[in-house]
Fold this sequence. Notes:
The structure is a homodimer. Chain A is mainly alpha-helical. Chain A is built from nine helices and no strands. The first copy, chain A, has helices at residues 8-22, 29-36, 40-44, 50-62, 73-90, 95-105, 111-119, 127-156, 167-192. In chain A, helix 5 packs antiparallel against helix 9 (167-192), helix 7 (111-119) packs across helix 8 (127-156) and helix 8 packs antiparallel against helix 9. Chain A starts with 7 loop residues before the first helix and ends in a 5-residue tail after the last helix.
Amino acid sequence: MQNARLTRDDVARAALRILDELGLPDLTMRRLAAELNVRPSALYWHFPNKQTLLADLADRIVTRRHPAESASGWDGRLRAEAFVLRDALLAYRDSAEIVSSSLALGLGENPAHARLRQALDSSPFDAESADRAATTMLHFLLGHVSLEQQRLQYDSLGARSGEPVTLESHEGDFRFGVDILIAGLRDRASADSPAPS
Amino acid sequence: MQNARLTRDDVARAALRILDELGLPDLTMRRLAAELNVRPSALYWHFPNKQTLLADLADRIVTRRHPAESASGWDGRLRAEAFVLRDALLAYRDSAEIVSSSLALGLGENPAHARLRQALDSSPFDAESADRAATTMLHFLLGHVSLEQQRLQYDSLGARSGEPVTLESHEGDFRFGVDILIAGLRDRASADSPAPS
C-alpha cells in the first residue's frame, strides 16, 4: 500500500541518515524501506532505482554549503568553492564515492561541476577551457577527498598501517594542490588573454 | 593440503585475470581459490588477507610500464610519469579503486607516489613540497581515472545517460589537467628558488 504521507524528501533524508551512521555499503533500498517503515514499492514511487536516489543524495550533499561572498576574482571564487565543496563532502561518509558515481552515470547536471564552472564565468577562458578547468579541479577534489574518507574509515576500524594521518596533514595537502591548480590556471589565463590593444 | 607448487606469483596472476575479466566486486578469495583449484588456506599462506593481495596487485599494475627516457627536466619527467601511470591504470578494470584503497590503507611504500616523487628529485622543491607535489598529481590522476573507468563500465552496461564520453575527450581532459598542474608547479618552483647570487 502506498504511504500517502511519504515524500521524496522523507526518503532522501532517511537515506542520508543511513549513510551517516552506516556508510554506503549498508544503504540498500530494503534497509531504507525498513527505516521508513514502508514497503520497498513506496520508495520506487519516488526513486525508480538506487542510481537516481544516489544522484539526488549527491546533489543534496554538494549544495548544502555555499562559500562566503567575500572571495573576489574568478581565481578567488574557484578557490573558495573548492574549499567549501571539500567541507560539504566531508560532512557525509562515502560522499566522494557517491558524487563520483553519479557524475560517471551522467545523471542530470552535476552541481559540484556546475559550481566550480560558475566561479570561472568571469575568467578569460573560453567555454571549453573553463569546462576543463572545472573538471580538473573536480577530479583533484574527488581524488583527494575519496582518499581522505577511506583513511578516516580505516583508522576508525584500526585497519590502517603506520601512523594516523591527521586532518591538518590532509588540509595541508589539499591547500597545496588547490594553490598549484589555481597558479597553473592563472598562468594559462594570461597566456590565453589577447594582449590589450 | 598445501599445494607446494603454488607460488605467490601464481596467486597474483590469477587475481589479475579475474580482475580483468570480472572486475573488483567478483575478486573474492573463494573465487580465486576455485580458479587455482586449491583450498582458500593455500592462498592465505601467500597473502594473509585480501588487503595485502590488493596492495600487491596495485604494485604490479602500477610498475608494469615505464616512460621513455626521452623526457627531460623534472617537469618533463613528471608529465611523462603521469601519462604512463594513466595508461598502466587503464589496462586493468577498477585499478584506480585498488590503488586508492591500498594507498589509504598505508600498506608499504606506494609505487605510484614513489614514481611521481622520483621525477621531482631534480626539482627545486624541498622534500615536503616535492612530496605534496607528487600527492597532488596522484590525487588528480586517481580522481580522473576512477571516473573514466566508471564511465567505461557504465557504458558497457548501457547504464549511462547521455552520449558516451569518448576516449579522446577523456584524454583531452587529462592532458589539460596535467598541463595546468605542471604550469602551477613551475610557477611555485620559480617562486621558491633562491635568486642566483
